[in-house]
């Protein structure tokens, strides 16, 4: 973990996210990106269904052996502006290995070209598709970073639509507040080797599309206490060298009087460290997930 942190400090990512102007120049005149292709190892391990749901590409991976009843809907991170990258496939592969679950990956449309309203209409259609073949108790909403925020937002949104409650949420370094106003952020920003608030807030404003960034589907930490208490059980995995630690602590505090949140903190963990599944800390995360799902053996 220390070595990776040192390497990350040599990359330009932190500098870029420190500048809203850089973000505007980079993203507002770009060509729309494509996701990283599915890895060969996942194609060997899983039957792949590649379809369109509500006009958006949606990939479902079904283990060829050792399958369980669970179905994970995995929303990838990237501050709502970056497409699915290779480490996301590595996370998904580790989840399949740990749980035996089928995983559906919604390739939701990104900001600044699109907004959260479009995404939630699409994600609702994806959820209803999964419910047509899977009991709600066996559905898990999972995601990293912005995708973790989407996982919580989906649970809140589905409850408001009176859809069946999913069985669990799994969150990796979730981004739960796009306003960037949490007073604890600076203490984590000082040690985070990757991210900074100005660029993230700029990306969040594009995602909001002019709506209030405190809307619960954008920043779930501002949801009503009763709505948070009604969420499914949550497993949250968070590194301490990550600006999103402020969001995780806020959610833990908000749910202390109600709700079911298992919060595992990893000292020195960078943002979405589980994207490198071979790290000892990442192996501990997926071991915990395996035990949460009843100790399904790794295959």
Classify the beta-strand content into a percent band: 15-25%
Task: Please give the CATH architecture.
Answer: 3-Layer(aba) Sandwich
Structural class: alpha/beta
Helix/strand order, N-terminal first: HHHHEEEHEHEHEHHHEHEH
End-to-end separation in angstroms reads 26 Å
CATH class: Alpha Beta
- Our count of domains comes out at 1
At CATH level 3, the topology is Rossmann fold
Q: What global shape is seen?
A: globular
Total strands: the figure is 8
Helical fraction: 25-40%
Poorly predicted parts: none
> What is the alpha-carbon Rg in Å?
18 Å
Report on this structure.
- Helix content is 39%, strand content 16%.
- It is globular and about 45 Å long.
- The protein has helices at residues 2-8, 13-17, 20-27, 40-45, 86-99, 116-131, 146-160, 185-189, 197-208, 225-229, 245-254, 280-292, and strands at residues 46-53, 56-63, 71-75, 102-106, 139-144, 168-172, 234-239, 261-266.
- With 299 residues, the protein is an alpha/beta fold.
- A hairpin with a 2-residue loop joins strand 1 (46-53) and strand 2 (56-63).
- It has 12 helices and 8 strands.
- Helix 3 packs across helix 9 and helix 5 (86-99) crosses helix 12 (280-292).
């Amino acid at each position: 973990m220390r070595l990776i942190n040192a390497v990350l400090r040599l990359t330009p990512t932190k500098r870029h996210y420190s500048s809203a102007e850089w973000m505007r120049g980079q993203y507002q005149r770009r060509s729309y990106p494509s996701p990283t292709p599915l890895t060969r190892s996942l194609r060997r391990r899983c039957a792949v269904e590649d379809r369109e749901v509500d006009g958006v590409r949606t990939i479902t991976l079904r283990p060829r052996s050792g399958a369980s009843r669970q179905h994970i809907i995995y929303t990838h991170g990237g501050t709502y502006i970056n497409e699915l990258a290779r480490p996301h496939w590595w996370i998904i592969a580790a989840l399949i290995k740990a749980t035996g679950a089928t995983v559906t990956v919604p390739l939701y449309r990104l900001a600044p070209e699109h907004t959260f309203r479009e995404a939630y209409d699409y994600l609702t259609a994806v959820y209803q598709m999964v419910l047509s073949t899977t009991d709600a108790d066996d559905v898990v909403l999972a995601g990293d970073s912005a995708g973790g925020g989407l996982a919580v937002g989906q649970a809140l949104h589905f409850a408001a639509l009176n859809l069946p409650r999913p069985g669990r949420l799994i969150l990796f370094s979730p981004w739960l507040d796009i306003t960037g106003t949490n007073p604890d952020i600076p203490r984590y920003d000082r040690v985070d080797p990757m991210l900074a608030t100005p660029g993230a807030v700029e990306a969040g404003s594009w995602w909001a599309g002019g709506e209030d960034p405190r809307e619960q589907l954008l920043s779930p930490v501002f949801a009503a206490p009763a709505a948070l208490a009604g969420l499914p059980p949550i497993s949250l995995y968070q590194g301490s060298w990550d600006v999103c630690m402020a969001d995780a602590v806020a959610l833990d505090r908000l749910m202390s009087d109600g709700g079911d949140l298992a919060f595992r903190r990893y000292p020195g963990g960078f943002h979405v460290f589980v994207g490198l599944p071979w790290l000892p800390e990442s192996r501990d995360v997926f071991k915990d997930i395996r035990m949460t799902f009843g100790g399904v053996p790794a295959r």
